[in-house]
Structure formats: structure tokens, C-alpha cells
Amino acid sequence: SSGINAEYGGALAGLCGQSISYPLDVARRRMQTGGLHGDHLERYSTLRKTITHIYTHEGVRKGLYKGLSLNFMKGPIAASISYTVFDYVNHLFVGKESV
User: Fold this and answer.
1) Residue among 58, 20, 68 at smallest CA distance from 50
2) CA-based R_g, the chain, Å
3) DSSP string for residues in 66-79
4) What is the pTM of this model?
5) For labelling, which of 4, 17, 28, 36 has a CA lying 20 to 30 Å from the CA of 92?
6) Opening angle at CA 19, ends 88 and 56, nearest 5
7) End-to-end alpha-carbon separation of the chain, Å?
8) Rounded to 5 degrees, what angle do the CA atoms 66, 68, 72 make?
9) Which of 67, 82, 85 is nearest to 29 (CA)?
């Protein structure tokens, strides 16, 4: 029962974490690769300018959250495995169930 709860908790945490942090990841990638594609570097010089440019020209769904669906497939799976393994190892060494 505890393992199943850890899996579901991990999956939910993975979904929430991916949803919240994904726009920052998109902006980071743009800032890293902006000059490689011939884009003007000023547009991606700061985090604020990068997010503003993406939001203004591409929108939320097709810009800031572009590609999120692929992360929804891998993120919750990885998080649920991590939570389950942590719970199992914690129970093995400490001998207590996590709360």
C-alpha cells in the first residue's frame, strides 16, 4: 500500500514539477541556443526578455509549453520510480513507513 501511494505521489509530484518549471527550461534553452540560429542575441540576453519574447511571439501553449507533452510521459514515471525506491530503501534501513 505504501509503495502504491509513493508511486502515485511521485507521479503527481512529477506532473506538478514539470508544469511549473517547464517555461523556465524553455527560456534557458532559448538563451543557450539563440545565437546558433541566427537570432539577435539582445532578444535572449536576460530571462525576462526571453520569456517576454516567447510569450509575445509564440504564446503560452505553442511557446512556453511547447514540447511539454513528451515530458509528461517521462517525468511522472521517473519521479514515481524515485519516490518508490526512496520509500523502499528508507523502510529497509530505518524500518519505518514514511508518512
Assistant:
1) 58
2) 18
3) TTHHHHHHHHHHHH
4) 0.65
5) 17
6) 165
7) 12
8) 170
9) 67
pLDDT digits (tens, 9 = 90+) for 19-61: 999 999 999 998 888 756 665 667 788 899 999 999 999 999 9
Q: Tell me how far apart the alpha carbons of residues 12 and 53 are, in angstroms, rounded to a whole number.
A: 30
- Which residues, 6+ apart, have CB-to-CB distance to 45 below 8 Å? 31
Q: Give the SS3 label for residue 95.
A: coil
Tell me how far apart the alpha carbons of residues 99 and 91 are, in angstroms, rounded to a whole number. Answer: 11
Contact 69, 50 (CB under 8 A): no
**Minimal CA–CA distance to 42: which of 30, 58, 24?**
30
Residue 65 DSSP symbol: T
